Structure formats: C-alpha cells, structure tokens
C-alpha cells in the first residue's frame, strides 16, 4: 500500500501500514528522530491502531512549501539528530513534544477502556494551572464523564464514554494543552461560559411572543431545565434558613413563567452569561497588558559587535555574550553585567528596590529596568524566557490564571450578591401587595449579581499591578483578601535580615554658615547616588521640615556626581565600592564639607512593625534561639510578644494552635521557611530577593528582601475589598430606577432588564477607567522617578 500524506496549515498526517509493525520498529524510531530534527516540527503523535503518524508544525503560510520540501528531505536523509531515546512500547499510542529545541515524551496512558491518565510534574500542586486548563478544555466535551486532578500523584485522570468519544481525541487535546502551556487565556476562556442554549431560549421565547405561542412553554421548559441546579441550591438555602442569589433567581424564574414573561427571563439569563464572558475576556486582555508592562518591548537594540561598531538589531537576534548599549529613557532588554558607563536605573518592579539604583561596572542589570539618567554598555547574561522579568511575568500569568477558579474570590462574589437578595425580595413582596406580579417581575429584574463577578477579577488584577510597583509579586489571587482579614503577624526570629540596621546621617563637617541649605543641596544631588545614603539624607531633611528637589544632572560617574544648583556646580565624591562611605562635597571646585553616615540604632524593620502595630496588628517573634536572646531581639524591634527555643515542630504547633483558635496569622520570613510552614498560616510572605530566576513559594513575595514593604502591603490590602464594593455601587442608580419604574407601572420585565444591563455596564465602564488609570500611573511612576 502506498504512503498517504495529508497536509493542513498546522499538521501533516502519514498513513503507512508497513511502518507500524511495532512501536519498537527501527524504521518508526528513525522516522520520529528525523521528523523531530526539523526546526519547524513541534510534536509527533503515533497511532499504531490507525497506522497513522500525526506531525504538528509551525510555519508561516508563505514559507510552508519550503518547509514541506525540507521536511520530506529530512525524512529520506541517511543521518538525523538523535533527539529521542528508546521509544516507550507501552500503550497503543505515543506522543512527543518539542520546546526550545528539547524533546520530551508525554506521560499519557490509556489505563482502561474508559480512562486516560496524564502524569506530569506540573500537576503536582493543588493549584496547578495545567490542571485547571485541562479541566476547562475537557470537562465540557461531549462524552467526557469526569476530569479528576490527583495532585499527590501528579496526574490528571479523564473518565469518558468510549461510545461517544475516542480516547485518541482526548489524548490529542491533552497533548495540545501541554504543548501550549497554560496561558491565562486557556483558563479564563470565555467559551467556557456556554451561550448556545441561552441564545436558543431567547429565540424560542421571541417566536412564542410574536408568532407561535406554543414555543413559549417549550422555552420555559428549557429555562427550567438549564436553571434546575439553581432551584436545588435555593431549596438547600431555605432548609438552612438562608436567603441568597439562588432563591432570588428562582423567584424571578417562577414569576416570569407565571406572568408569561418568559422572554424577559430568557434575556436576563442570556445577559448574565454575557457578562460572565465579558469579565473573562477582559481578564485575559488586561493580564496580557500587565505582562507586556513587565517585559521589555523593543523594536531595535544597539548591539556592539566584536569590531566595536554599533549596529541596530532585533531583540530576537540578541544572544548571551553580546555587548549592548542603552541610553537614558530606554528599557534594558536583557539581564547582564555592566562593562562601561554609569546610569541611574529604576528596577523597582523587577527587583523591588524602592529607590533608583546607580549601576556601573561590574553591576548586574535586569531586563525590564528603565534607565533614568546616564548610559550603559553591558554584556548579556540571560535573554528572553531566562530573564528575571520573564520569570516575574510568568508568576503574574500563573496568579491571574487561578483567579477564575479561586474559591475565596468566588465566595466573596456570592456573598456580595447574597447581600442584595433579601432587600430585593422584600421590595418585590411590597410590590406584590401594592401592585401585581408584573410589578414584582420588573423589580426582580434588577441585576446586582453580575457586578461583583465583574469587579472581583479585575480589581484583583489591578491590585496585582499596584503591588508590583511596591516590588511585591502576588503569587495567589486571594492573598490580599486573606491579608486584609488578618490582625496577627508572626515573624521568624531566625532570619538575620530581620535585624539589619539602616543608615542615618551622622555628621556634616563644614565651615559654611547655612548647613540646612547645604543639607538640602546634598540630599538633592544624592538622588543620583542610588543607595541607602539617599534615603538617610532625605529622612534628615524631613525631620527638619526641609523639602528636597531633584537638581539638573551634569555628570554621573561611579565615584562622583556633578549637578547644577543655580549658578553653582556641586560635586559629590565617594568610594564607589562602599555604599555607606562618607561623601566629600565640592562647590565650584572647592571642598566645602564632608558628610558621614552611621548605623541606625534600631533595625530597619522596626519602623514597619511600629506602623503595623498602630493599625491594630499583634506581632509575635518566634525563634529557635534562647529565651533571653529572643527577648533582646524582640526589644530591639519593639515587639512585646515572643517565644524562644522553638524548633520547626514547635513553630508548626504554634501556628496550628493559632489557626485552631480562629486567629488568622500572617507568617513572614525567608522563602525556605515560608515553603515549609505555608500550610499552617493564613497568609505567607516571603521576604527574599530573587536568586537567579527562581521565585519562592509563598502567597506574597517581597522581591527586595526588605521587611519595610510589609506596612505598605497591608495598607494596600485594606483598600482591596472597599475597591470592589465601590465598583459594584456604580450599579445602584439604574437598579433603583428599576424599582421606581416598577412601582410607577412604567416598566415590565424586558424594560427593567434593559435598565439592569445599564447598571452592569456602569460597573464595567468604571473598571475599565480604573485599569486604564492604573496603567498610566505605572508609567508616570517610572517617568517621575
């Protein structure tokens, strides 16, 4: 039998019976190796039972013919790269995917006639985005009975009806999802909210209203069937003595059928689904916007060749070892090491540093940082997905991907909707007594439910952005919600960085009469120092009530800074290698002062702890050190609650005891301790700078390793729920108009539903403005800094 080849824009299918004598057939192995050696090929699936090989590839339409020619040549080539090991003979099918030049076989097996199992390391956590993505894509497919995530076995188990769907079709969908990864779009996919049945009921009820009355009861029956689970929830709530959205929704459905306003309910049902789709699509779009703000987006890069000639190249052409030049106002395109020049760099979102940092050889620079002043040449160490910016962007995408499925956020949306159910039902009851069921229907068509479901995901995303400006990466979508609930902070006294001392202005030795004016001038110039001395000088000015203004920069070097102050030139000289060294001040070429710094009497973290205590937090210091030692450390931090001689088991027991007593504790420490104790605290905060490109396991991650960011983070968390409630209140006026119009006899179910949609549109419009302002604010922060 001759070989049958079928080509599509993304795949090639081979059907050749002689090739599939065995999965260990040498010709088959050679075929797989040769095919995977072609750069455009991304995946291969083998289906011996169908005598079929499916080859996935990526190629632009205009270059497809050239790819096919190269592919066929590679298949017939005598030599090929050995990209795979021995082919696994188990199972009736085999799958490989290729990413970034490396090949791996998918651990996919059909363990029974109706069961397929995928094993993958990415499935080892209960909040695996790959698991969420697979559930979203497979659960709605006809014939699939269940999709079960077994985190302890790092696997997904799919049970299906083999008479309705083939195992090979399920497996292909799994392979495609693993190959694509888990972008936010795959989890928050709007298509997961089905619209077909809802649109059909609108059509049926419209036909029944205008042309064929028999269609109306059919539409009513479909609506009852599709909303039956809500009716069951309403019955459950009644048995528990609760009044919530299910009961409200059931009352609306009943009233609509009794009064013949089936079309009105069908339109409302369609609208509720539309707004669910709307927030999902917005979440995808805004997440991509956030990622783009984090990652450097450049058209051309100044690349200095080995001959010393500067050439403009594309970002894709940059490789490790290249020497790049970046000027003021530009974004650093890769991670690297400075080899020439000096610059003031804003890396707050990438490294969490609260002030601009001065960079010079051999300082490290990070992709996504912005040069505020000066210029740099640096040698590239990491590019693309290997940069720290890419890792942070990946963490953002993972967090946002969890938003749609987060139970805490869903519960919050339900709670906000439930708060409006009783007042609305009570108002409807008054309308029944004062009017008729038509009045009741018009009142019940208010929409207080869609607003919270719109607001919570998008406000959460906005706060993820806001936290990033503080140098904090939110790694769990409900982290801020839980942080806002907490009033007890547990600090790990075994973390040495907790006791790190700050820098203070010790002395200004000068013969000038006006030392305050000199301090202002030096503090202004010190903005370009980019280290702790800048903060120390600004604090000294603040204590004296002196304003600090940024002067015009004349020259920026590793060991001195020159500025222009009115008619004078001011130079600050220092030792570049020592960020705490004294500063020599020159004005118009004359040495006028020496500025010296000293260690602060209390640890830097004390200011943050004092601020949290002022907000009502109880702070506890626990440590494995002796009680007397811990008491001294606690006193230096201003903490009155402490415990010593606590090993890991004792720390776990302490946190468990807090949880059992209903105390919602925040645990802040180094990343390793956060990972170990993550299951015992209400919120975990990793206070640790990134090591390479590895992000710690915690709910929140303070990149700079500075405890001082905790106070600002708590302050932000306190605004989180009020921001959600403020957004939902924008639905107030139109919904009240529904009530007024119903009592006035001016509205029915359809017209009231239209006004209710205006209410939700108000919430949506307000959220878009908030997100847009957030993007502008982030840009202004970079510019102003």
Protein architecture, described:
It is a single chain. With 785 residues, this protein is an alpha+beta fold. Strands 11, 12, 13, 14, 15, 16 and 17 form a seven-stranded antiparallel β-sheet that branches. It is globular. The model is unreliable at 776-785 (pLDDT under 50).
- How far the N terminus sits from the C terminus, by CA atoms, comes to 72 Å
**Average pLDDT score:** 85
Tally of helical segments: 25
In terms of per-residue confidence, which ranges show pLDDT below 50 for 5 or more consecutive residues?
Answer: 776-785
Which percent band covers the strand fraction?
15-25%
Protein structure class: alpha+beta
**Level of helix content?**
40-55%
Shape: globular
Q: Describe the main β-sheet briefly.
A: 7 strands, antiparallel
| Secondary structure: number of strands | 30
State Rg: 32 Å
